[in-house]
Each structure stands twice: as structure tokens, then as C-alpha cells.
Amino acid sequence: MNDTDLVAEPADRWRALAPDSVLLDGFHALKHALRFGADVRMVLTSDRAAVAGLAAQLAPDVAERIAGIGGIAVEVPAAVLRGLVPRPHPTGIAALAARPDRSANLAALARRPRTAPVVLLDNPRNLGNVGAVVRLAAGFGATGVVTTGDTDPWHPAVVRAGAGLHFATAVEQLTLAQLPDGPLYVLDPEGADIRELPFSDDALLAFGSERHGISAELRERADQLVAIPMQPQVSSFNLATSVGMGLFHWLSGRRAEGGHP
User: What is the domain partition of the chain in residue ranges?
Assistant: First the structure.
């Protein structure tokens, strides 16, 4: 086997796996995916030694698995990596992982009683915002993130913005008819002041799209409309910012009542 064959073999395997896999761009996405039990199928890097150093510094808990002796990272020339990944990450590493089983995610979302809310994004349009929301949900310990509409919450750009934390919470695309049970709190400018209304652990916290806000159908289904205070003449908050404030409000109320973060 010559050097060309040694390079072609991982590249060919990557191409075969890619259509049915989740693309993890960069070291942080891979780190989080491994920490939360993702089935990582393949890892390529243009500089294995640099990745080993980065892992030792930032994620010693998974460093051996990534770049230790027998680790999963395979080195290929930078040009090969650029040909396989649309926008290579500055850390020079990318991975493919299996998408979590949908039935397991749906079971996690439907399980009652819930100990943390489900975040519902109603027809979101900005892929980066959806990824940022997944990252927030993982950080706050939300049960999951559900999207309606035609935006796939597992789109590569969403996963990139989520830094691999899709594997830390249940992320699914559902119709309104498929939404899990629980009291529905809809964030709406005409709602009650959020400071006067605690969120229950089993809540669905619904946020509208960046351009059009919450849909009329979802608004009509709300158990409670809730508003985040905002200065006059300011049109809106960023979607991820609103979600962060909503989850912080839930968590703060939980701690005030003697619950755990």
C-alpha cells in the first residue's frame, strides 16, 4: 500500500459515512459529543500532535480517547480535510457521529414528571440562533429543545453553533400535534411580566421566530402569555438571549424554592 492509498482510505471511509452522520466541526464539538455519550464514528485531523496538546490542556478527561495511543483521531493532509469538510474549524479537527435515536429523544421529552422545561422554538429561521439555544439548554439542564417548521435542528450549521451539545439534551423537530404535554408558557410582548410568574419544572417555554414572532395557533394554545420587560422603542431581543433569560428565570425560581440547579 502506497502513501496515496493511506490517505485515500480514511477519505473514502469518511465520504461513505458522512451522508448518515452528524458533522462535528472542531475540537470543542468533538469534546462535548464524547462527554455526553455520542457514538463517534470517525475523527480526522490535519495535525494530530496539535490536537493532542489541545486535548491535554482543555479536555484531559477525553484526551486519551481522541489522540492518545490508540486514540480515534486519524491524521490526514490539510488539503484532504478541506476537501471533506465545507468549512474546516481553526482547530484542524472534524468528526462524524451517529445521530441519537429519535425514539429515545421523544421518550425523554414525553417523560413525566419532568424535572426541567422543554424549550420550544416556533419556526426558527436563523441556524446560528438555534445552535446557540441548544447550547443554552444544555448549560441550564433543560430537558430538550424542540423546533417546529422546516428548519432541521441537526443541520450542520446548527450543530456547529451548538458546539456539540446536541448530545447533552434531547433535540428534535416536531409538529404542533406532536408536542409533549405540560403547561405551555408562550413568550409574547402582550403577556404578563415574567418577574411575576414562576415557571414550573414541567413547562414548555415557547419562543417565536426572529422575524414573525409566535404563530397564532401556538399563541391560542398557551396556558400563559409571558413578557420579558424591554425598554420602549426597542423592537425585540435576540432569540437566544430571550431563551437564556427564560431559562435563568426558571432556574432562579427553582433555587428560591429550595430546588437544585
Answer: 3-97, 102-256
Per-residue confidence of the chain (261 residues) as pLDDT tens digits? 334 444 568 999 999 999 999 999 999 999 999 999 999 999 999 999 999 999 999 999 999 999 988 889 999 999 999 999 988 899 999 999 999 999 999 999 999 999 999 999 999 999 999 999 999 999 999 999 999 999 999 998 999 999 999 999 999 999 999 999 999 999 998 899 999 999 999 999 999 987 778 999 999 999 999 999 988 877 778 899 999 999 999 999 876 566 555
- CATH number for the segment(s) 3-97: 3.30.1330
The whole-angstrom separation of Cα 10 and Cα 3 is 12
Q: Which residues 6+ apart lie within 8 Å of 90 measured at CB? A: 26
Residue where the block lists cell 438555534? 130
DSSP state of 213: B
> 102-256: what CATH class?
alpha beta
For residue 183 the three cell numbers come to: 403547561
Cα–Cα distance, 176 to 244 (Å, whole number):
23
| Spatial distance between the Cα atoms of 153 and 123, rounded to a whole number of angstroms | 11
Give the predicted TM-score (pTM) of the model.
0.90
